[in-house]
Amino acid sequence: MREIILDDPLSIVLLKAVIIFVICLISTIMAVWAERRIVARMQMRLGPNRVGKFGVLQGLADGVKLALKEDLIPAAADKIVFIIAPIISATTCFMAFAVIPMTGEVTLFGEKTSLQLTDISVGVLYILSIASIGVYGIVLAGWSSGSTYPLLGGLRSSAQVISYEIAMGLSLVAVFIYAGSMSTSEIVAAQSSWWYAVVLFPSFAIYAISMVGETNRAPFDLAEAEGELVGGFHTEYSSLKFALFFLAEYINIGAVSALATTLFLGGYKAPPGLGFTEAWLGGWFTAVWFFAKVITFFFVFVWLRGTLPRLRYDQFMQFGWKVLIPISILWILVVATLRVLSLQGAPRSVVIAFASTVVVLIMAVNIGFENSKKKKEAAVADGDNKAAPSFAVPSLPMEVSTINVSKNTGGFFSNRHVFIDIFNVFYNL
Questions:
Q1: Which end of the chain has less Cβ packing within 10 Å, N or C?
Q2: Considering the chain, what percentage of its residues have pLDDT values greater than 70?
Q3: What are the residues whose beta carbons fall under 8 Å from the beta carbon of 351, sequence distance 6 or more?
Q4: DSSP assignment of 121-190, as one string?
Q5: Rounded to two decimals, what is the model's pTM?
Q6: CA Rg value for the chain
Q7: Contact criterion met (CB below 8 Å) for 89 and 138
Q8: How far apart are the first and last CA of the chain?
């Protein structure tokens, strides 16, 4: 497969680039409509239903509306960086699809190829690096706006990416160990018998959580946080610049979903027992399986948005550094040990004994943490815990002015101390 892709003529490469670009644009329009309709159904509403059949063209109408809006640039903004930031976010998300195999071997204008722009030996690292560059658009947008709220959103986004990209990268190490390659096409080929979502389920779970944090989606949308930061990093943006951020968000969702499909769900390969469908339509039917898996991930994104509240910022950071990263490191050690044992021909009983020991240790540690948590909760309920909270809170006033509300038996104007107390309250404020 890799040799076929690398031998493509320039015309086929350009044609595939156009096809992938069009697919990304159309999928964005459909994703906007689908998310609004799904969330509306969750909230017992109708959602968009006016523009086009069932409101399917609502995303296109919103794009045209944004294009016709006045483009405003704040007076305090760094104009050059302010303009470049959304371009960085929008272009990098398209580049991630260059190494994603969307189909198996097909025939395109007489040339045998795959719907994959290129295939490099470090394709997964390429995607991670492109995703890291895309964050610069968010950070620069917050910094260049010349406003407080966008700056806070940009700082949150940078900390968020640093925290969760580490866990995401570590979750992929187990995939590299089992597949023996970082090429996306070779990883898909290595899942011919078992998907890595089953074999390496902890890696799959860690990646699934990390990709939500990577895309700034609920419940990890701390960079936008409408209730706290108005709109976050894109508060000062309007017209086409805002549309580019809107486009980048949904393309990024598609990119991380496509990467999860490629690394853990067999990519374009059919589910077990349905392998005969891969030859339908000259191999083009494999794209149906690929996009079906991507759509499933997208539905999970929407589901999380409609059901989960936003995490507090300290909870978000603690979860990334104290839970995901340590578990990822421990899982890498376990996978590497099991892989070495299996390659050296160790008896199956030894492998099972090692895996059972690890499971028992994890359960023991989990039970210990649960017991410690229950003790702390019991101490708080009894009023014995005097420790300060784990997040910053302003100091509470120790003295509170009171008003004498004793029964007045001498008429409204007879008790002068009531008016004196009221005056003292407002004076102290």
A1: C
A2: 86
A3: 338, 341, 342
A4: TTHHHHHHHHHHHHHHHHHHHHHHT-SHHHHHHHHHHHHHHHHHHHHHHHHHHHHHHHHS---HHHHHHT
A5: 0.82
A6: 27
A7: yes
A8: 75
